[in-house]
Amino acid sequence: MDSFIRNLQIPLGTREDIPLVILHKLGSFQYDPLLRERLDGIFSPGHHTFLVNTSGSGKTKLLFEGLCQRWGFYFTFARDGSRLGPHDLAHIAGTIHMNLRLTWTQYLPPPSDPQYASLLQANLQMVHNAFGGALLARLFVFKLFLEACSKEGFCQDHRQRWLEAQLLPQDLSDQGDPFNMLQLDVRNAQVDGSVIDEAIAQMLEEIQEIWDMPSGEFLYIALDEANVPSREYLRAFADEHGEYPLLKAVIRSWQRRLGHLPVRFVVAGTVIPQEYFPSASGEWDDWRWSSDTDSFDNPESQRRYVSQFLPPEFKASEDAQVLMRRMWSWLRGRHRYTASFLTLLLANRFENSLYLLRQYIATITKYAPTDHVEHVSEEVRQEVERSISWFSEFGSKGLDEGPISRIEMHRAVVTYLAASRGCPDCETKDRALVTQDYGYFVDTECRRIALDEPLMVIYGAGWLKNSSHPAATTMFKTFDSQHPTALRPSHFALFLALSFASNFDGFSNISDAFKVFGGPVLSALAAKLVLFSKNAEGRPEPTDVHFSEHSPKRLVSEAGGAEDMLSWFKHERDEPFCLFQSSPGSSATLAFCLEFQDGQCFWVFVHVPGHFTCEDSPSFAEDIQHASPASLFDEQPEILSLLVELPHLSPDVGPLGVLRVSGSFRVEKASEDSIPSEHQPAAILNIISLEEAGKRISQDMLMRRLARIFSDDTGDSLRDRQPRQLDSSSPSRKSGRRKRSAAGSTSTTRVSTRLKSKSETVNAASGSGSPGPPESKKRRRNNASSSAQTRKPDTGGSRPGTSNTKITAGRRLNKITAVATGHASPGVPPSEPPENASRYNLRKRIRLPRP
């Protein structure tokens, strides 16, 4: 086991007990055609890119992989627990006002103010200076790196080594992060912005003297965690389009400094408001918006990805097979869920894996699955708790404060409970679900948002289960609130299915669910929910439906067309409810069967109109007309004949044995003449009574039902369980659909195997790796005796503010030659663990002996 884990060659971070799974097989995406195509679309010479998707979707991994194959700079505005990347940008926003020459104005006065123009210019200059210092520091270290590379001849692998040097900058110096230290030197020197501009210009000239960029290639500037500056200083900058955040000011500043070079930006974040970068202005015409991060949305891709981390003897065990099934049940969706759990598995040496998964789920969702797990000792519990402490629960701020996230989470929970699927068609307004991390883009162009991940849905269900919540799972008051987006009829119809399943689980008065017009006798009768299925002789027989965590397996059949409806009315389906809807967002009809105590049965059709919560006077009579069989099935006479074939059909409830019900929510506006006598008997909802019944539904049972649904649907793809409609009127999204990699995820690694020849293996020992492009043929073997720290880099003479940087920079970068030439690389593991290796026997970064 120890040898296997060590041979995975997974780097360790600043906290040496946490394996950095994101760096496993770094640089491998180039060997998978679809992953390479995805990278080519993001790192394109034809445009800059805004890469936007939810937290944990794999954006950072894509940036790393793209920069393994291309020269570029990796900057991040915020570092996570992995501590990867320099710390040079993360603190600038908080210290940008620390300038002795200029005055910072966080809130600009109105444009009519006489000082407006000067204050705005001062703010822009301070951004130019502060972030220019970070750019200058990066260019300076890059120049030294290129000098070291030139001594052995440039090769393709130098690009990845340069990325590794940026991700783990402490490997370049004994004194800490040189990028951050150098930019602090520039800041503390308090030099004029023109001095920084001149230094950057000269540095670029010197870089071009060392390195002749091949024609057609670009230098890529990757800005990660751009959601941070996209929300900062929203009133400190403005142009003809209005106020804008710090991010826009930084991009403009760097484009101005690098504009004459072949440079492309890739700006990644969870939220980058598109209104600040209007394409119609001309300035942002060559920027493309992408959400092409992919996800684990089918079990096979996740299984392939996970399998490469599992020791052969463990992979063949029954525990491993159970584990992978449960991982798909719970961790499908964004890549971070799976990768983070793998981190725990590795750290715990694959021991107590099922218990570890349960505790991982419980920690981040506050819900512990009831799946059977092995018994563990108190010592193991304590050790697992220590590992689990790396993670924290999902945040509820978006649910507490965001009405869009709240109502869409309610819809996702209800849809899973009733139809055993998530919601791949969520509200895109303000991209709130993505911004608040509950949903994620499932297309490539930031147009379609899904909320269907089991971990996120079970967390949301736990938040909703409090009956005092304004959006409690079983409370009708959810639909009585004002929402910034229209509520969907299908949402209310599925919610009603849950309510009716609970209310009619056993005999209950009709009046507890409906107010019947024209049928006083009906209101006094009791009925129960039944499902008809065919017996051995082919005759339909009723079976009682008891609503619980286990049954029915799926509550509602969503008819996607005439064939699906026909199958349900022929009693060929196992769901007691059927929902049919002509098109997305349109009115919906819910159908089911009830049985009286005397054995007579009847149909119930509840028609939910498109604007079922409309404050204006609802047209109950119109709803009843739409719920009539003749109106619903005018083109399907076969269904009309099936209705009357129901055994023991009651003749007193309405035409063809159908009780028609208006699904309008505003029942308080109903009166005795709301439904004309010619449409009676008919009914409206008794929401007051149903609301009281909803309070009696066990929320814990609903949570267990959700967990069972997640576990039962282990063979289905997330995307395959989309809601289907009666027609195909929605526009085709073929052009925006993601291409699936046969190798699986973009989150943490490739699946395809890198094949090496004997000569390549020799090169790998010194950090060279694959032969690379033709330029690698010029590579010269060199003992690297001339290191970067013995040189006297010229950053522009003795101009003010640069001399101190020149004197100290060489000493700080005393390891750059070893890293550049591969003699000390964070990408190369030791062949044997050092004596002070962590107890998990995962690789540490060490300096390798020269060959």
Automatic annotation (TrEMBL):
<protein>
    <submittedName>
        <fullName>Uncharacterized protein</fullName>
    </submittedName>
</protein>
<feature type="compositionally biased region" description="Low complexity">
    <location>
        <begin position="742"/>
        <end position="754"/>
    </location>
</feature>
<feature type="region of interest" description="Disordered">
    <location>
        <begin position="714"/>
        <end position="851"/>
    </location>
</feature>
<feature type="compositionally biased region" description="Basic residues">
    <location>
        <begin position="841"/>
        <end position="851"/>
    </location>
</feature>
